[in-house]
Design brief:
224 residues; Mitochondrial Matrix Protein, Chain A; disordered N terminus
């Protein structure tokens, strides 16, 4: 296991800023090392120590590319991921999800626990369309560690550019029956609590991947 971690570290540190990717082989590191100042050498030592720590503490794994009927597109270095799928023969479902963008304090679990813990939050936009150029039904949602909640539902019109389009009422102020019906409509297309759990697991791994990639890119920049 230690050998695999060291191999992954060497691969990361050899990547360039334009082609850096944590799980692919990159160009060999140049043997023509440039003499660094004590200040730069110190930065490089700190960066290397932090990279080693991150790999030892919680090394990331290869990201998954499928969830249920959705295909995941994750571009290295991007704070968003995209998921695309189909519902029936006519509907396309597209999801854009952020990395973690907030948190709330929650009570710690357990009879003997006291104090507070934190639940991480991420945002997602779900577009449901029935063909190119046609209007789309768009949902703005919040994904918590184990459940999904709808914030907004509106029509995304493709045939007009309005300065201030009407985006519909606040979902939480809708009639309870309408709220339930819209939630079931979204769940039938695979956008549900299980998706929220998947996204949190995915983003925990992506967060670590992006951090290590960033550290490696900064180290490569200072080295060159």
């Amino acid at each position: 296991m230690a050998t695999l971690i060291r191999t992954a570290q060497r691969t990361l540190l050899r990547s360039s800023s334009s082609s850096s990717f944590l799980f692919q082989t990159t160009r060999p590191y140049s043997s023509d090392a440039i003499t660094k100042s004590p200040f730069e050498s110190n930065i490089l030592r700190i960066l290397q120590t932090e990279i080693n720590y991150q790999f030892d503490y919680a090394p990331p794994h290869q990201a998954v590319t499928k969830f249920d009927s959705f295909t995941v597109q994750d571009r290295p270095g991007d704070q968003l991921i995209t998921m695309s799928g189909k519902f029936g023969d006519t509907e396309n479902v597209r999801i854009e999800a952020t990395m973690f963008d907030g948190c709330v304090a929650v009570p710690k679990l357990g009879d003997e626990s006291s104090g507070q813990d934190f639940a991480l939050h991420l945002s997602l936009i779900v577009d449901i369309s029935k063909g190119d150029g046609l209007d789309e039904l768009e949902f703005v949602c919040s994904a918590w560690p184990n459940f999904l909640e709808i914030q907004k539902v509106y029509m995304l019109r493709r045939d007009a550019l309005l300065a201030m389009p009407y985006l519909g009422p606040d979902y939480r102020k809708m009639d309870a029956k309408l709220q339930k019906a819209l939630k079931e409509y979204l769940e039938a297309r695979g956008v549900n609590d299980e998706l929220a759990v998947f996204l949190h697991e995915f983003m925990v791994n992506k967060d670590r991947t992006e951090l290590i990639r960033w550290l490696g890119n900064v180290k490569t920049f200072v080295e060159e």
